[in-house]
Amino acid sequence: MKYEEVMEYMECKVNKLGSVPGLDSIRELLDRADNPQEGLSFIHVAGTNGKGSVSTLIANALIANGYRVGRYISPVICDYRERIQVNNRMISKVAVAEGLSRLFELCNDMEKAGLSHPTAFEIETALGFQYFKDKKCDYVVLETGMGGTLDATNIIKNTKLCVFTSVSMDHMAFLGNTPAEIASNKAGILKTGCMAVSAPQSDEVMDVFKQACKTLEIPFTAVEENNIKVGRQSLKGQKLSYKKYKQIEVPLLGSYQIENAALALEALEVLQNNGCRLKEEKIRKGFMESVWPARFEILSKKPYVIADGAHNEDAVKKLMETMRFYFTNHR
After folding, report:
1. Which residues of 221-240 are buried (b: 16+ CB within 10 A; e: fewer)?
2. Average pLDDT over residues 21-42
3. What CA–CA distance (Å, rounded) separates 128 from 134?
4. DSSP 138-186
5. Is 85 exposed, middle or buried (0-12, 13-18, 19+ CB in 10 A)?
6. HSE on the CB side for 121, CA within 13 Å?
7. How confident is the model at residue 146 (pLDDT cuts 50, 70, 90)?
8. Edge-to-edge strand ranges of the sheet holding 237-242
9. CA-CA distances (angstroms) from residue 204 to 214, 232, 265, 279?
10. Residue 40, exposed/middle/buried by CB under 10 A (0-12, 13-18, 19+)?
């Protein structure tokens, strides 16, 4: 099948299947695809807000240090192929067409065997794993789609680091009706033998993460808010200092990106302390080269037109606070 044909198949048949939490279908599909995920090393990112920004900063710091890094993201903004990247280059149309054609055959075989047809997210996850294996990635920065425990990305076993961004109320019909219940679902990505880091959280959310890590005997660290020092902030960029890192420049705009940057630095420090070779000047370079479209992105200055979005109450509050801050103090 050609690229246009696999896209049409996804649109006309697969996308209609919707979202179905659970790991049985993705496990069966990956078994039939010879489990490409088993040879990869993952940095698994879960949370309500900030996953994309934190993943971007971590991935770019690793790339700047010479690592080959796969990224799996959602949602996408401009191109379907954005969801699967290696060193910030999107998967090719040829690779999408060939990979999906093979996976569609496996899905049809599953249906013939009386099994459920995998969802679009499950198929795309399998496609990403195969592509990252083919490209011999050193690390894969893997974002969960929704939640953690029953998210298709949670099929992985070789998790090096779990990163928890800000947790708030979202997708309650699937994840739970309290912050603690939602955090418990997201904590489902933890694996024995991995490490974990978290953004600042409410006490009830932090307690869930700490207890889950204690149960699995996983080293856990959290961003130390009192060690975050905010430097220059303007519509051209911002700086922060965190622990040993002084005046790190972050081109991503939005006051909430300060916390995201601190979390990325905490995650990189944990990796470095456990054998990942990282140089500070390369981390700085990676941060400086980080771009995350449609996240407080300035499209025009006369008049100001800014692209951003928020899909839950906490994100709306942070976005509005950022708008007031910039246009009161930094125009």
Report:
1. ebbeeeebeeeebeeeebbb
2. 96
3. 10
4. SEEEEE-SSSSTTSGGGG---EEEEEE-B--S--HHHH-SSHHHHHHHH
5. buried
6. 21
7. confident
8. 228-234, 237-242, 245-250
9. 15, 33, 24, 35
10. buried
3-state class of 302 per DSSP?
Answer: coil
Average pLDDT for 209-234: 95
Q: Rounded to whole angstroms, how far apart are CA atoms 53 and 45?
A: 11
Token digits for 304?
Answer: 């100001």
CA 95 to chain CA centroid, Å, is: 22
Asked if 223 and 251 touch (Cβ cutoff 8 Å), the reply is no
What is the rounded average pLDDT for all residues in the chain? Answer: 91
d(CA 256, CA 160): 26
Look up the pTM and report it.
Answer: 0.91
Parallel/antiparallel/unpaired status of strands 89-90 and 297-301: unpaired
Contacting residues for 112 by C-beta, under 8 A, at least 6 apart: none
N-terminal to C-terminal alpha carbon distance within the chain:
51
Pair of tokens at residue 89: 């280059």
Alpha helices, DSSP H, located in 33-141: 51-64, 93-112, 120-134
Q: How far apart are CA 329 and CA 137, in angstroms?
A: 43
Which residue from 270, 66, 52 is spatially nearest to 160, judged by alpha carbons?
A: 270
Question: 282 and 60 in contact (C-beta within 8 Å)?
Answer: no
Q: What is the C-alpha separation between 210 and 190, in angstroms, rounded?
A: 11
Cα distance between residue 79 and residue 7, in whole Å: 12
Tokens of 166: 């800000």
Beta partners for residue 250, in sequence order: 238
- Coil, strand or helix: which one is 69? strand
Residue 296 has pLDDT above 90, yes or no: no
- The string of pLDDT tens digits covering residues 227-270 is 999 998 888 889 999 999 999 999 998 888 999 999 999 999 99
Mean pLDDT, residues 150-157? 96
